[in-house]
Structures are given as structure tokens and as C-alpha cells.
Amino acid sequence: MSAAAQKHIQLALALPARLRTFFARYPSAEILPAAAESEKLKTAYQQESPNPFLATKHPVTGKWHDPKYSLRRQAEIVKLARENGVESLLPYTPKGTEERLRKRVELGLRVKGTGVGQQVKGHKHERQLVAKMEKRRKAMLEMPELIREWKKVGKRNWTKYPKSSS
Questions:
Q1: What would the pLDDT profile of 44-102 be if each residue is shown by its tens digit?
Q2: Residue 67 DSSP code
Q3: How far is 32 from 142, CA to CA, in rounded Å?
Q4: Cα(40)–Cα(51) distance, rounded to whole angstroms?
Q5: Chain centroid to CA 148: how far?
Q6: Which of 100, 109, 86, 93 is nearest to 23 (CA)?
Q7: What is the pLDDT of residues 14-42, one digit of tens each?
Q8: Cα(95)–Cα(52) distance, integer angstroms
Q9: Range name among 100-109, 114-123, 134-143, 144-153 with the lowest pLDDT average
Q10: Among 66, 67, 85, 141, which residue's Cβ finds the most Cβ atoms within 10 Å?
């Protein structure tokens, strides 16, 4: 046995038992030698269902069979593989990190109003708060000028409507 093969065996033995069992049943094409990629050298499990994480259609009856691993078990295996740095050796699964990230980018948070350029509806007073505070800020900035005008004219004689010269 070569040193590289010995190293791969040591790494495989370091994996948790659940991952070792999975890779024994469904070895990745990356770990198998080039000759093993042919149909003859596939395990019985792989011949039955090439990807244990996806549903398969029966060739004769046309009925769909559930995946060999439930979504919960898929998530557990992916988590174990990620922790041990071998997630790339797993077949495609909807629970994989790449797929989850792709979905998150595509769908966003799925909360109404959290997308780009959207607002959560909120109560009427919440929606009008920004405009109301802006109006109040403008009034406060104009207040010193208004006070000066009142002192000149007197509050009783003051009007916000300009006097028309008629």
C-alpha cells in the first residue's frame, strides 16, 4: 500500500462511526480509484439508489420512493461531515451548506417587508412618525425667526397669512 493510501485510511478511521458507515455504503467518486467509477464497482446500496438523499422513481412502476435518509438524518450527516471537513465528499442534498446559502440569497428572510426597498406596514402612527418628526424639526429651526417677528409685531397682531396690499 502506498503512503497516500495509508494516509487516507487513517483519516477515514478518524471519522465518526456514522460517517464511516455512510461512506462505506455510498463512497464518493473522489475517493474511489479511477477504475471504480464504472458500473461494476458500485456498491449494492449505490445500485439501489445512486443518491440516498433524493427520492427515486421506480423504473417499472413509475412510483416515487422516499429518500433512504430522511431530511433530519441528512441534516445530521451534513453537520457531522462539515465538522470533520468532508462535506464536499457527500452527494447533493437540500440540507447541504451550499444549497442552504443559495436558498437564503434567493428567497431572503421570507418576512414581509424585509426585502430591498420594502417596509413593514406597521400602525398608522408608526408610518407617519418620520414625516411628523421632520415637520417638527423644521418648525423648531424656524422658531427663533418667528419669535423675533412676534416681538416686532406683537403676538395679537401677528398672522401667518401675509397681509395683502389692497
A1: 998 888 999 999 999 999 999 999 999 999 999 999 999 999 999 999 999 999 999 98
A2: -
A3: 79
A4: 17
A5: 59
A6: 86
A7: 999 999 999 999 988 887 765 545 556 78
A8: 13
A9: 114-123
A10: 67
Helix residue ranges, H only, 2-160: 3-14, 17-25, 44-48, 71-84, 97-107, 124-127, 129-153
Residue 4 burial (10 A CB sphere; 0-12, 13-18, 19+): exposed
Residues in contact with 94: Cβ distance below 8 Å, sequence separation at least 6, in sequence order? 53, 71, 74
- Give the cell for residue 46: 449505490
Cα separation, 97 vs 12, in Å, equals: 22
- Pairwise CA distance, residues 82 & 150, whole Å: 73
